[in-house]
Amino acid sequence: MAVIGGSRLLWGPALGAVIFFFLKDLAGNLTEHWPAMIGVTVIVVTVLMPAGIAGTLAELAGRLLRRTGGRA
């Protein structure tokens, strides 16, 4: 869960837990091989977003704030 959400931010593992259980329920309804789908998700997130989903979202928010000059 910390890998999916990211461990750099306090709310990263919590976000990872929400995403994990959402994917587990969704994939569990589709197939009995849901652990494989979770594994693929962990691999994809690790390769494409090394800081996790929370870290990536925080980075994008920082870029947006810098681009707008601090105005949200």
Automatic annotation (TrEMBL):
The chain crosses the membrane at residues 9-27, 33-58. Keywords: Membrane, Plasmid, Transmembrane, Transmembrane helix. It comes from the Bacteria. This is Uncharacterized protein. The lineage of its organism: Bacteria, Pseudomonadati, Pseudomonadota, Alphaproteobacteria, Rhodospirillales.
